[in-house]
Every structure is written in C-alpha cells, then in structure tokens.
Amino acid sequence: MERFGFILHPLEIRDITRKFPIAEKLPDYWLEAMFRHSPPIKVSHITGICSPRGVEAEGWFVGCLLTSKQMLQLPEALVLEKIIRAARKAQALGAQIVGLGAFTAVVGDAGITVARNMDIAVTTGNSYTVATAIQGIRYAADNMEIYLNDASVAVLGATGSIGSACARILARDVGEMILAARSPGKLEKLASKIREETELGAVVTTDLAKACRRADIVVAVTSATGAIVEPEWLKPGAIICDVARPRNVSRRVAEMRKDVLVFEGGVVEVPGDVEFGIDFGFPARTSYACMAETMILALEGRYESFTLGRDLSVEQVDEIAHLAARNGFRVGGLRSFERAVTKEWIAQVKDQARKARQVTISN
Q1: What are the tens digits of pLDDT across the range 243-274?
Q2: Is the CB of residue 247 less than 8 Å from the CB of residue 166?
Q3: How many CB atoms lie within 10 A of CB 80?
Q4: Is there a single domain that holds both residue 164 and residue 226?
C-alpha cells in the first residue's frame, strides 16, 4: 500500500463550515482569529485508490487552517511554519509524499522551503494542473469549433509557474499568444523564451481586460484572492479556462454571459472505488489535478519532490501526463461553477454566441 498526504486550507473562511458545521453560527472575524492559532488537523482518510496496474494507495487530507487572504497578508515566516507543521502532520499519519494545495503551493518559494524542512517528498501538483488544463482547452476548442492554429489565446498570470508553462505549451499550436501579468520585464522575458522555442512572437500587456477582449481562448491563472474576469471583458463564443483557486472568473460571467464557455481546469477522475471523506464540491471519485499529481506519484512509488518552485518544465508536464494515463487518471469532462458541462450546454453557448455576433454586425 502506497501512502500520501495532501494539505488543504479554506479558500474563504466559510469553507470551514464543511468540516465544522457549528462554525456557521460564528462571525467571520472570530473564526479567522481562532484558526490563525490552530494546529493542523486531520480532515479525512482517503481510501480505495487503485490503478489499472493493481497498485493501491491511501492518503490523508490535512488542514492548514488559514484562508487565502490570510496566507497573503500574514507574515510569510508564520504562514510557512503552519504549512510545514501540516506537512509533518501528514508524515506522522504515514504519508511518504505530501502535496501542497491552493495557496500553500504559492507562499514564499512555492514549496522549496517546505521540502527543505521535511523528511518526505513534497510536490505542488502544478505539473499535472498544467497538463489537465491544456487537455481541457483542446476538448473545449474542438466542441466549440475553434481551431487552435487560428485562435488568439490570452494567458492571465502568464509569468507565474502555471501560467508560463501553459503559455509555452499552447504557443506551439495557436495563431496568437497574448501574455498578461503585472510585470512588463517578466512578460518580455517570457515572450523571448516563447519566440526561441516556437518562433511565435507573443503580445505582452499588463491590461488584463484588453487581453481578454482580444482572445478567443482565455487561460486565467493569476494569484488574485478574488474574481477579476468580468462579463464585459469577453467576446462572444470565447472559452475561459479558470485554473486559479480561488476562481479568477466572476460568477457574474456565468449569470450574464450565456454566449461564452467557462470551465475549471484540473478536474480529474481518480481510479478505484475512492472515498475522500470530505465533500469539496466535485462528483464522486473526482479531484483537483494538484491532488491527483500526489496520488499518481505515490502509485508509481516516486517518492521525490517532483514539482517545486516557480519554474515548470515542459518535460515535467509531459511526464506526469504519461504517468497519469498509465495509472488510470483522466480529465473528467468539463465543469463550470459546480455543474457538469454537457454537450447540450455547449450547443446552447454556440447558438447564443452566433446570435450575439449577428447583433454586433447589425449594429
């Protein structure tokens, strides 16, 4: 039996009520103050993972009880200490590798310091997150009848580890690449790298709204703590892959723009009769890709720090995609704001986009 751990944290303070329903009766400021000083907790025991090769794995979700906002606002040393304590809790439970979820993979040097303070392997899961996001984009583009070699693709948060890897891989196949982030210098450096690798001259901008308005496909992967992509930014028929946690795409997009297709990157079917022991809003036997990377490495007996830091290689992404397929993991269709994206839904989006374009032409 292979064993792993994965560190969770509440994206928002109200997420804590999934584990502690009594918290619904308490004010947010009180909960934030209390959990800031709380030790890590065992959230659940994960059972039933079994690859087609017959290898089995079990694991544990361990809670680091800081919200996304707290992880960005509190002193970095304090936050890292709490993450390390949570990772050590996973090790004490029996894990031989631990994955870092959501903002625990972002703080500081993206897992390097955590790994240096551990006796077991650490991974952020970002390599498989990229692989599944790209698989989802290709699936969505096929169904929306968007041809990648003619498409304009914008990557928001392009200079981050996930964003830059997505941009470099997609740049091999797209008509236009738009890189959007806050740092012009980092954007220019990434654009130069893409030009060397693909001969594609990427467009760079710090204006996220401008990038979205030009794009047929938007990959949203910034580290913002709240929604930043608004309905007014998007062209009819656009595809938006929201890889970020918390979401980058405003719920207003789903409510107001029936002519665009929004989906969440990195939703994965896990092999076996899996029981996670906690409801994080997905159907049974599905998880985030970052969680799945930790499971895949455990099933392979690859107890090594696979994905750390802010530089992902294309080779890493390709390798983890191969290992995922070998162990029975696959993208579980598309999901948008806790709902499965059906063929009928996509057909309706295409119809609404066609009508919106006709109105634009007539005006």
Answers
A1: 887 789 998 998 999 999 999 876 799 999 99
A2: no
A3: 18
A4: yes
**If we measure between CA atoms, which residue out of 302, 363, 359, 343 comes closest to residue 4?**
302
Q: Both tokens of residue 300?
A: 């392979």
Angle at 278 between CA 140 and CA 66, to 5 degrees: 90
Separation of CA 247 from chain center? 9
Name the pTM for this structure. 0.84
Identify which has the larger pLDDT, 28 or 129.
Answer: 129
Looking at the fold, whether 309 and 187 belong to one and the same domain comes out as: no
**pLDDT > 70? residue 27:** no
Question: How many domains does the chain divide into?
Answer: 2
Structural domain including 14 reads: 2-127+267-331
At how many degrees (to 10) do helices 126-144 and 289-299 cross?
120
C-alpha dihedral sign at 310, 315, 316, 320 = positive
Q: Residue 33 has what pLDDT?
A: 66
In 3D space, the residue among 280, 309, 346 whose CA is nearest the CA of residue 17 turns out to be 280
